[in-house]
Design a protein that fits this description.
Blueprint: H1 3-18, H2 21-24, H3 26-48, H4 55-85, H5 89-93, H6 99-127, H7 140-165, H8 176-184, H9 195-201, H10 206-217, H11 224-255
Helix pairs in contact: 1-6, 3-4, 3-6, 4-6, 4-7, 4-10, 7-10, 7-11, 10-11
């Protein structure tokens, strides 16, 4: 694996962003809207609630963490879709570029753009609504790591789906975080879910992050074993997603799908 080729993929997407305001603005506008909306909701709940519970770290913190995971996933798929929209696959894979180098470039591009969104969310949540990450302690680092890996896995899996089904399948990609969120307990404990949803939650790494977050805010401590399990699951999913993408790419090359890739190809 040649790191310079991975950096070349990252530079390609940097030049795309640098030359297009319509690509730069969404990096921070939608996350800013989410933080502002949920920030005022938490202020309202704090004003009308008769308990001492502070909704800012409970709800606004959950929104920030889940938005970060969603941004990572969408960052990978958007970088991939740039090559779909420009019909650039044959140009890329006619070079010595390997799949590992290509996926590495997509992931690094996503991490950079997601970090921009995370910074904007932190500035708004801290400066305007008083959210402090110090309440989570050093565990915020493994929290973000688990969500980063899971977002990468979802992004690579979704990119593989589009590669297999064609560009029209991109509409299957955008709702993925919304479909996953009810199962991982972003805003509520997993104990209120029906048993079948709880079973699914146990194999989804973000559920361990949000359960750990609520445990800390309730005055307890996040179980290190649960976070380690979440990180392990996320890493496994990244490997499985890469294997899925590799198999789909091999199929696309073998069947000639890559050469006749078009906006109408859904099969």
């Amino acid at each position: 694996m040649d790191a310079t080729r991975t950096i070349a993929i990252v530079l390609r997407h940097f030049y795309l962003l640098r030359g297009s305001l319509t690509r730069v603005v969404p990096l921070f506008v939608w996350v800013a809207i989410d933080i502002v909306l949920w920030g005022f909701i938490t202020r309202y709940l704090n004003a009308v609630a008769k308990s001492s519970l502070d909704f800012v770290p409970m709800l606004l913190g959950a929104v920030l963490l889940w938005d970060f995971c969603s941004r990572v996933m969408h960052g990978v798929t958007t970088a991939f879709l740039e090559d779909v929209w420009s019909r650039n696959f044959l140009n890329l894979f006619a070079t010595p570029l390997s799949l590992a180098e290509y996926l590495g470039g997509l992931v690094v591009s996503s991490i950079v753009t997601s970090a921009v969104g995370l910074l904007v969310m932190l500035l708004l949540a801290t400066g305007v609504f008083g959210l402090s990450f110090f309440v989570y302690g050093l565990l915020i680092i493994p929290f973000l790591l688990v969500l980063l890996l899971f977002g990468v896995a979802l992004g690579i899996l979704s990119s593989g789906m589009v590669l297999r089904l064609g560009p029209a399948a991109e509409w299957f990609v955008w709702p993925v975080p919304a479909l996953v969120s009810p199962f991982v307990g972003v805003f509520y404990p997993l104990s209120i879910l029906p048993p079948w949803m709880q079973h699914l939650a146990r194999v989804l790494p973000p559920s361990y992050v949000f359960e750990g977050m609520r445990s800390i805010l309730a005055g307890g401590a996040a179980a290190p074993g649960m976070l380690a399990l979440g990180a392990t699951l996320s890493a496994v999913y990244v490997v499985l997603a890469c294997r899925f993408f590799t198999r789909v790419h091999r199929h696309a090359v073998y069947t000639g799908l890559l050469a006749r890739y078009s906006a109408e190809s859904v099969s």
